[in-house]
Each structure stands twice: as structure tokens, then as C-alpha cells.
Amino acid sequence: MTDSITDPEPLSANAVAAWLEAHPEFFDDHAQVFAELKVPHPHTGQAVSLGERQVVALRERQHVLERQLANLTRTARQNQQIAMQLHEWTLQLLAETQPERLPERVCHGLAKVFEVPNVELRLWQCPSVDAAWQADVDDEIRWFAESLSRPYCGRDTRFRAVAWLPQTPASLALVALRSPQRGHTFGLLVLGADSETRFTADMGTIFLEQVGALAGAALARLLQPTNSS
User: Fold this and answer.
1) Nearest residue to 162 via CA among 187, 133, 189
2) pTM for the model
3) What is the CB-side half-sphere exposure of residue 92 using CA atoms within 13 A?
4) Which residues neighbour 228 within 8 Å (Cβ) at sequence distance 6 or greater?
5) Number of C-alpha atoms within 13 angstroms, CB side, residue 136?
6) CB 3.0–4.6 Å: which of 103, 177, 211, 225 could bond 187 by disulfide?
7) How many CA within 13 A on the CB side of residue 132?
8) Which residues, at least 6 apart from 161, have a Cβ–Cβ distance to it below 8 Å?
9) Closest to 147 in 3D by CA, of 106, 180, 175, 182
10) Phi, psi of 106, deg, nearest 5
11) Which residue in 210, 215, 153 sits closest to 188, CA to CA?
């Protein structure tokens, strides 16, 4: 009775990769194998040398980095433009000598800065403001504004404040207005855009936070004064 001879288990791709990582001297000791090894081209499927395949990989990596750099440059330019426009908007608020015109200044200026068609706000505890800026503000909206620790951005248009806009937006931002002196919420700002990607849940809100702080500081001039006694 003869013993049967079985073929050894073939090495898996992971095992080969692990062995090569553990023995980097392999290609130094077998340089000819490295030079003559052929691998499929990633696009044409033709056999090319390992060196050529590495050059293709490096070129693709370079293209990815170039696209990332272009995106970063474009974003930086957009942020610079927004920062300059915010600066101009802030100067307009500071230069306004008639406090009752501030709500209009805030809305029209932000519509230009953020290039959105619809911007509305509502205020409470501001008796000197025209009634239009205080309409449709109930307790639910006030509580919601007070609960906003940071601006909301997204496509959920079920918020009651969306009704202030002339038409339902594709995306929107909601920014609470707070008094810098007393730190309490006295208004809500709504920005509505036609694009679903204009205000997204994962976007940064640093500019909107600055807008809320600046608008709140300017509009606080309209608050009803409190008794010091």
C-alpha cells in the first residue's frame, strides 16, 4: 500500500503579500524577477512591467491631489469673498442711524452675501419694530429659537418659521438672534435657497454663527429696555 501524495495548499494572496512585507530583501536578492514581472495595466488590461504600473499609480495619485488642491483653492476663494461681503454688511449695520431700519438692512444684506433669494426674520420684545417683523411669532417658534445652540442647515422644511418665506425653499438655514448684553434669544433668522446643496446638514456654520452674533448685536438696539430696579 502506497501513501498518497497530496499537493500543498496554494498560498493565498494575503499570505503572499504578508510574506513580501516581512521579507523586503526579496527583490534585492531576486532583482531579475522584479524587472521581468508583468502585471495588468489598470485601464487597458495589457501586460506591463511592475515599474510601468507603479508610474501609472503615481500619476493617478498626482491627479487626485491636483483635484483636491483645486477644490481647496476654490473653497478658500469663496470663503474670502464671503468674509469681505460680511465685512461690508457689518459696516452698513454700524452706519445705520435709524434703528427701525435694521431688520431690513439685515435681510437685504444677507440675501446678497449668501446669494439666496429669500431671507426673513422675526423679533420679539422689540416694541419699536414695525409689526411686520413681529408677526406670526408664537411660543413654539420662540422655544425652538432658544433651543438652537448653533445654526440649523438642511432640507427639512417642516419648521413653522418656513412659512415666513414667500415660497418653500429647497434648503434653508435657521439662525437664532441673541442679545450680547443679556444673552437671551429675541429673534430668529431664516435663509431660504433654491438649491438642495446650498445649506446642508454637514456644512460648516462658522459664517452663519458670525452672522447670528453680528445681527443679534445690531438688532439688540431695538429691544425693550429692562428696569434696573
Assistant:
1) 189
2) 0.68
3) 19
4) none
5) 13
6) 177
7) 6
8) 122, 141, 144, 174, 188, 190
9) 175
10) -60, -50
11) 215
Q: How far apart are CA 223 and CA 179, in angstroms?
A: 9
* Cβ 211 vs Cβ 82: under 8 Å: no
Over residues 84-108, the pLDDT tens digits come to 888 888 888 888 888 889 999 999 9
- Would you say 188 and 134 are in contact if contact means Cβ atoms under 8 Å apart? no
Identify the bridge partners of residue 178 per DSSP, sorted by sequence position: 185
Contact 212, 121 (CB under 8 A): no
Between the two ends of the chain, the Cα-to-Cα distance in Å is 112
Q: Which of 205, 104, 115 is nearest to 152 (CA)?
A: 205
What gap in Å lies between CA 224 and CA 124, rounded to an integer? 9
Q: What is the phi/psi pair of residue 48, to 5°?
A: -135, 165
Name residue 57's amino acid: A
